Hints:
Layout: H1 3-8, H2 10-52, H3 54-97
Amino acid sequence: MSSESDNARPEVVAFQELSLLVRHIEDELASFRKRALAAEARVKELEAISGEEPTDIVALTRENADLKKRLDAATARTRQLLERVRFVRQQGAKGGEK
Length: 98
């Protein structure tokens, strides 16, 4: 038998195709493994960083809550002043009519 006649046999062709597919899958698997290792390293890095930050996050959360309270209080005072200005304008308009 010659090698050309072996290549013509369907099982040989199928085996060659399968072999090629396996090589491609091996390459993809290696790529996925590399990406997974990089992702795991990044997760460890972020975990290490986040281990240092909780106090900062707590402090910023408290500061944010305090600023929100101060903003709400300032908004309420501004509305009161606006109401007073409207009242004074109304009183001035009524006084000018007399």
